[in-house]
Amino acid sequence: MPVPSPATIAELRETLRAIEGDGHRRRETLPFGVADMDSRLADGGLRLDGLHEVAAKGADMCDDSAATLFMAGIAARAWGPILWVVRRRDLFAPGLYQAGLSPERVLYAEARDDAEVLALMEEGLRHRGLGAVIGEVKRAAMPATRRLQLAAEGGRTIALLLRRHAREDADPLALPSAALTRWRIASAPSVPLRCGSMGRPRWAVSLVRQRGGDPFDTLLEACDDTGRLALPAALGDRSRAPGRASPRTNAAA
């Protein structure tokens, strides 16, 4: 039996996306704007009516900041106000701003524990008036993530769940989840500019799991002030190009 060509597979995916759900409405997505990533995502981007999980590769502050800013960049490109539910007051607003997320768009809610974080997220998703709902937890069981996914379905509010490290040696993504995509983010060395100063930050981005598609790993330049990622520029060539944003440094979250 002949193997279908990539073009045939892409056409089939487009047809399935068009008839998904109620058979009439196509799911809205938020593309990254980086062809190398969007072409490898089953939906051509992140589905707005779904839950997406992010975790830092390590428990150190560098990886944690990279994961936080990765989510901030996604939220920055979403429509409308953003609800960010936290357990501790450690978000650095200027860092979020440099990742494209303006302070006036963000509504902060402080929760006592993981259960309250998840409950507030679910309430925000059902409101339908928010562009994104973000929460940070150490533990979330499958039933809790399924509730978040169900609350997001049918709307345009993307759900982003940051899985923090419960222990330094634990994998936050080890437990099963109903999330449509699961990401692992790590900081990576930047390339110094010719003048000797630090280049644009880079992240090692791993899509650990996605519904209807394959995992992949890629190296990207961190979010610019519009929330956009970029493929690493060639050494000595920092000019703008399609899918490549202007080289700016980012403050840590």
Automatic annotation (TrEMBL):
Top-level taxon of the source organism: Bacteria
InterPro entries xref list: ImuA, P-loop_NTPase
Region (Disordered): 234-253
Protein name in UniProt: Protein ImuA
Lineage: Bacteria, Pseudomonadati, Pseudomonadota, Alphaproteobacteria, Sphingomonadales
